[in-house]
Give the backbone structure.
Amino acid sequence: MTTDSIDTARNANRPRVVIVGGGFGGLSAARTLAGADADVTLVDRINHHLFQPLLYQVATGILSDGQIAPPLRAIFSQQANLRVRLAEVTGFDLERRTVYAVTPDGERLTLPYEYLIVAAGSSHAYFGHDEWERFAPGLKSLTDAHLLHARILGAFEMGAEASHDSDRERWLTFAIVGAGPTGVELAGQIAELSHRLLSREYGSMAQTARIVLLDVAPTVLTSFPERLQEIAHRDLAEMGVEIRTDAEVTRVDEEGVEVRDETGKSFRILARTIVWAAGVQASPLARMLGQASGARVDRAGRVEVNPDCTLPGRPEVFAIGDMISLDDLPGVAQPAIQEGRYVGRTIRTRLRGRRKRRPFRYLDKGTMAVIGHRQAVVDAFGIKLGGVPAVLLWGLVHVAYLVGWGNRLGTVGRWLWAIAARDRRELSISDTAQITAGHALSEDGASSAPARAAVR
Ligand SMILES: Cc1cc2nc3c(=O)[nH]c(=O)nc-3n(C[C@H](O)[C@H](O)[C@H](O)COP(=O)(O)OP(=O)(O)OC[C@H]3O[C@@H](n4cnc5c(N)ncnc54)[C@H](O)[C@@H]3O)c2cc1C
C-alpha cells in the first residue's frame, strides 16, 4: 500500500482536502476550493465528469461522448491547488482521517486528509432483482449509454432482417420501465428515432416500432405538477408511445417483461429491448460512512447528514449529492451542485480560522424534462410550461450547465442539425455483440444492494 506522498511532500503544512467523486457535487466543491490555501485531491474511478442529464442523447445517437463527458484533468488543468487521481475508493478510516483507494493497475493508495468530501452519487436499483440488469440495463454511465445505443439501433437492424413477423415485432418493441424524467426522455427519443428519423434507413418498418412506457405509479412524471403530467402524457401519446401506468413489472427476461395491472391481472410484453429507468440506490460508500460514523442510512442506502452536510461527530467529513438524505431533497443535479458549493465555502471559512456557518439551504430552481424536439415540460420559479417554449428553456439551462464552451457550441450545433436535417450523427454500432441481452453491464459494476427506492 502506498501513501499519497505527492501532496504531503509538496505542501507539508497545508491542509489536505480529499474529494471523492467528480460528478455534479464533487465538481462544484472542487471549483469552490480554487485558490484556497489547501491541497485538494479529487479521486474518481472514471476520468471524466459525466453530465448525466444528457446521457440519453448519447444512447440515442444525438451527442458524442466527449460533449457530455470532458476529462477531469482538462477541467482542472488551471486549478493549481488541485490534483486529479484515477482510482476507486474502497473504504475510509475516519479515526485516522484516511481514504483508501485502488488504481486501475491495482496499486493501493492511502490518502490522508484534514477535510473529506464524499460525493459518490448513486446507481440503479432493481428492487431485489439484480438478475434483471442483464436484460434491462439502466442508464448511468457512458458504458451504459453505449450498451443501450447498440441495443436500440441494433433492434432496427435485426428487425429489418427478421424472417418472421413475430420476430420483427419483438425486435421492434421497446419496453421502458419507469416513467420518471429519464424514462420519459428515453421513450420520447426512441419514438422520434423510429417514427420520424429512421425511415430513410429502414423504410416504413421503422414506423411500426412499439414503444411501451411502464410505471407502477398512476401517472408519468410523478414529481411534476398535475398539469405538466397531463401535458407529458398527451405529448407522449401523440408521439406514439404506449403508456401503461399502474403497471408493476413483476418479471424481466430475455423475451420481455411480465406486468401486473391495477386489477391484479398479469400480462406479458414481448420486447427485445428493455430499459430500466425505475429506481436508484445510493453508492455503497454511503453505507460505509454510516457504519463508520453511526449516521443512519435510509432504505435507498443514503446516509443521513447534519444540516451542514457533515457526518455526526465528524465536523471534518462532509457527504453531498445523491448519496445523502437531507431535508427530503430529490436526487437531482441542483442539490448536489448547491451542496458542493456550500461545503466548499464552509471549508474555506474554516481554513481562515472561523467555524460557524449557517446550515445548508436549498434554492429550488425547478424541474424539467424534454420529450421530443417540440415537446417538453418545465416547472421553474412558479412558471409551468409545455411545448416549444419549454424545449427552448430546457435547452438553455442544459447548455449553460455543460462544461466548456466547445461542448456547449458543439451540443447546440448537434441539436440544430438533428432538428433541421432530421438526422443523427452517432448511429454506428461499434460492438454488435452488445445487441442481444446479457451483455456487459455498468462500468461501476454496480454493487447496489437490493432495496426499494423511489422512481426518479
Ligand atoms: C440518465 C440520467 C438522467 C438524469 N437527468 C437529470 C436531469 O434532467 N436533471 C437533473 O437535475 N438531474 C438529472 N439526473 C440526476 C443527476 O445526474 C444526479 O442527481 C447528479 O449527478 C448527482 O450528483 P452527485 O455528485 O451526487 O453524483 P454523480 O454526478 O453521480 O457523481 C458521482 C461520482 O462519483 C464517482 N464515484 C462513485 N463511486 C466511486 C468510488 N467508489 N470511487 C471513486 N469514485 C466514485 C462516480 O464515478 C461519479 O463520477 C439524471 C441522472 C441520470 C442517471
Remarks:
- Residues 142-161 form the longest helix (20 residues).
- DSSP finds 14 helices and 24 strands in the chain.
- The pocket of flavin-adenine dinucleotide is lined by residues 20-26, 43-46, 50, 52-53, 55-56, 88-89, 119-121, 139-140, 181-182, 283, 285, 321-322, 331-334, 336 (CB under 6 Å).
